[in-house]
Amino acid sequence: MTKDSTTEVTNVLQTDNPEYIRLVSHISNVWEGAKGKAALAVNTELIDASWQTGRYIVEYEQHGNIKAEYGKQLLTNLSRDLTRLRGKGYSRSNLFNMRLFYVQFPKIQTVSGQLTWSHYLELLKCDDTMEMQFYYNAAIKDGWKVRELRRQIKSSLFQRLALSTDKEGVMALACEGHQVQTAADIIRDPFVLEFAGLPKQKRYKEKDLEDALKSHMEQFLLELGRGFAFIGRQYTVPIGSRRFKVDLVFYHCILKCYVLIDLKRAEIKHSDIGQMNLYLNYFKTEICQPDDNPPIGIVLGAKKDELLMEYALQGITNQLFAARYQLYLPKREELQAQLDILLGA
Fold this sequence. Notes:
By secondary structure, the chain is an alpha/beta fold. Helix content is about 55%, strand content about 15%. It is globular, with a radius of gyration of 26 Å.
């Protein structure tokens, strides 16, 4: 029995009898654990049954029976007859997905019980095997819920990360998932902030964007990636008689360092780079502890001039990056076309 569960029970019950509180807590924990195990068992059996169904269909087809009486109507007829026998759950689309599930995961040993059938339905929407493998590994490693997995696929996360590496890096990304080992590994260009709800045609202030990100912090952390912990907004940086403000401050639990983000509504200017460098120097001297790694600075703007940023960042020893954001989901086809060129190189 945990301290948190005891506190929860104490808050609910109208008694201060400690023995009775412990009794209720023990029983409550037993049933909570049982429900969790039951849900896991049901999920495992559902995934196994779906895989087995797909295997039977594929084996039937491979034995030449696809040309038999049912022919092209196999899934339609199966749906009709299984529904008569067992009731709901055997629509043609469900059977199609079960067949595809087996085709994409022909070895049951590669099917993880950590993901639900709903996770697999999202994965099966991926056209590319490498892309599906990436999301499969990432969903397990990062513990994505179904809606989080769906959002990452829609935002073309795989293509965005893949385009920042070489051909070998793309292969590793698909097989191992996204590894965060250096400051550059947390940069996505562009970051996709469609959840902020700010129409790209409408004029807005930097504060509007900051407010929107604060209001949708869970989605923003998902876009930033694994390891980010939110520290605060408009973080005060007092230097001499002046006081500056960093828009957003995070701590990265994997890289063990502070991450400072400054938001720019329009194009990033060279002066923005200098200002962020100032913040990083302050954090290194005044904020970071001996066991912290040097802080990372990200200037996030709607646009950036690559050549200007190259010169602005030249000679800076701090870990400082200029990256773009966009307020709408990227066109997957365009990103995939660029990726195909990279892989074909």
